[in-house]
């Protein structure tokens, strides 16, 4: 009976190794596809002179086409200038179509200048300095 259990454990280990190899192969393919997309984006930009719009695709198999979502990554100086002209020195990040990740990074790096606020999907950034 112990030989059967050893065989089962051996097969489980082999399955785990095969799963790891499959995941590794998929990640390599994903990385290759990302580099191809970056190359195509640079070619589009070279030919048209415009940066391709970022698109967000749904992972589900729905039949609806993915909507293009264009966000802007701004520098600290650009953000400060925009906030100085805003009412209450506050901007809704989503309405201004700013990239929230970059705004969040700027606020974390400059807590004496910027403060994040808002609730849920409507984050705001305020100039406090």
Continuous helix count: 3
Q: Helix content range of the residues, please?
A: 40-55%
User: Poorly predicted ranges (pLDDT <50, ≥5 residues)?
Assistant: none
Shape: elongated
* Class based on secondary structure composition and strand pairing: mainly alpha
Q: Say what oligomer this is.
A: single chain
Strand order of the largest sheet: 1-3-2
N- to C-terminal distance:
74 Å
Biggest sheet, in brief? 3 strands, antiparallel
Give a written overview of the molecule.
51% of the residues lie in helices and 12% in strands. It is mainly α and 129 residues long. The chain has a 3-stranded antiparallel β-sheet. The longest helix is centred in the first third of the chain and has 47 residues.
In short:
This protein is mainly α and 129 residues long. Helix content is 51%, strand content 12%.
């Amino acid at each position: 009976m112990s030989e059967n259990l050893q065989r089962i454990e051996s097969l489980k280990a082999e399955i785990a190794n095969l799963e790891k190899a499959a995941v590794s192969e998929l990640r390599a393919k994903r990385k290759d596809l990302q580099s191809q997309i970056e190359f195509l984006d640079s070619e589009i930009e070279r030919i048209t002179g415009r940066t391709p719009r970022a698109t967000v695709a749904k992972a589900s198999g729905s039949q609806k086409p993915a909507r293009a979502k264009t966000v802007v990554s701004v520098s600290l100086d650009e953000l400060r200038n925009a906030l100085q002209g805003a009412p209450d020195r506050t901007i809704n990040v989503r309405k201004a179509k700013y990239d929230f990740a970059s705004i969040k990074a700027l606020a974390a790096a400059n807590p004496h200048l910027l403060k994040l606020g808002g609730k849920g999907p409507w984050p705001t950034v305020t100039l406090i300095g």
